Amino acid sequence: NNDGCSAIVQLLRTSSRTISRLHLSMKDTSITDKGLSDIASELPYLPLQEVGFNLSRNISNQGVNSLSKSLRKISSQLNHCWISLMGSDVSDMEIVNLVEALSYLPSLSKINLKFNGDQ
């Protein structure tokens, strides 16, 4: 739930100088857009080389929009990003915004994206 996200955000803040890989699986959780937004807001402050999200079906356009905005601000040497939106109800426009945000990352060399059949 979103309380778990608060704990994750606190961990990211206290370990911000050492986290180079962040993989979060939210698939079978009750995490909402607010929780994802809180976590995503910490991404630009981490020395990430790899980041991945397996997003829950509770995530909608608002959460993916927050993630896209945070990805645009990352200045670390991020070279691998994977995001799974299987089961979530995200619009085509937000997916386009997400892919566009990834294009702002100059060192990105590997991208894995998974979507529903209708997206």
Task: Kindly describe this structure.
- This protein has helices at residues 2-14, 33-40, 61-73, 92-102; strands spanning 21-25, 50-54, 80-84, 110-114.
- It has a four-stranded parallel beta sheet with strand order 1-2-3-4, with no helix packed on it.
- The chain is of the alpha/beta class and 119 residues long.
- The relative contact order is 0.17.
- The mean pLDDT is 88.
- The protein has four helices and four strands, in the order αβαβαβαβ.
- Helix content is 38%, strand content 17%.
- How many individual helices? 4
Secondary structure class reads alpha/beta
Order of helices and strands: HEHEHEHE
| Low-pLDDT ranges | none
Task: Calculate Rg over CA atoms.
Answer: 13 Å
Average pLDDT metric: 88
Question: Which shape, going by the Cα principal axes?
Answer: globular
Cα end-to-end separation: 26 Å
The biggest beta sheet is recorded as: 4 strands, parallel
Order of strands across the widest beta sheet? 1-2-3-4
Relative strand content: 15-25%
E-strand count:
4
Q: Helicity range of the residues?
A: 25-40%
Q: Descriptors for this entry?
A:
about 120 residues; alpha/beta; 4-stranded parallel beta sheet; about 15% strand
Annotate the secondary structure layout.
Elements: H1 2-14, E1 21-25, H2 33-40, E2 50-54, H3 61-73, E3 80-84, H4 92-102, E4 110-114
Parallel strand pairs: 1-2, 2-3, 3-4
Helix pairs in contact: 1-2, 2-3, 3-4
